[in-house]
Design a protein that fits this description.
Structural class: alpha+beta
Distance between the termini: 24 Å
Largest sheet: 2 strands, parallel
Strand order of the largest sheet: 1-2
Amino acid sequence: MAVFEDSGYFCVDNLPSEMIRTLVELFMHAGSKVARAAVVSDARGGSYFEGLAEMLRGPADQSSAPPVLFLEPTRRRC
């Protein structure tokens, strides 16, 4: 995330997947000053993470589809 911040992206960490689409819609409004954004939705969020796959499928309108998707598997530590 730090690399994106250093590159001028508006970054949001640990956002529940259900809120990503709303955030994108806010960025698309006229007058928004956000040109590039990076969002992290983490599996450690539990039930908040479950809707990510459905959100990424989204509507047929691909204008808000993420241009880059990076998934990183992690091991759960006890």
